[in-house]
Amino acid sequence: MRLELVPFLLLGILSVLIASLSQSLLKWESGREHTSLLREYLNPGVIGGYGLLALSMLLTMFAYRKLPLSMTPAFESFSYIFVTIFGALFFHERVTKKKLLALGLIVAGILLFTL
Fold first, then answer.
1. How many domains does the chain have?
2. pLDDT digit string (tens) for 87-114?
3. Which helix (DSSP H) or strand (DSSP E) does residue 4 occupy?
4. What interhelical angle do 78-91 and 97-114 show, nearest 10?
5. Helix (H) or strand (E) holding 105
């Protein structure tokens, strides 16, 4: 991998992190009770979640300006890791041995793919 691509790869990973936060925020908001249908969709959590998603898409577009499309799986795969971490932190989801093994295989695949 060329050294000048590293900042764009990191930008892509940051965009995936932000998208994962967006998903977690929207999931958290969907589990709450709302007094009306309008407040279910027009509240700070939902608006913030979609705002983060828009920011993530902008960062992804900037990363794609320099990154070859063949590198896309390398940073998109980080979403599995981020979503698992956020699920455990925010929703107290269990991280089983099978999930850890799967995440380890994903990381190994990312490393193998980028080397």
1. 1
2. 999 999 999 999 999 999 988 887 787 6
3. none
4. 150
5. helix 97-114
Crossing angle of helices 6-30 and 78-91, in 10° steps, is: 40
CB distance 84 to 99 below 8 Å: yes
Per-residue pLDDT at 115 exceeds 80: no
Angstrom CA distances, 69 to 63, 66, 94, stand at 10, 9, 34
Residue 68, φ and ψ in degrees, nearest 5:
-70, 145
**Which residue segment(s) compose the domain that 44 sits in?**
3-114
How is 55-98 classified by DSSP, letter by letter?
A: HHHHHHHHHHTTS-GGGHHHHHTHHHHHHHHHHHHHH-----HH
Nearest-angstrom CA–CA distance, 83 and 69: 23
What is the tens place of the pLDDT at every residue in 49-81? 999 999 999 999 999 999 888 788 777 888 999
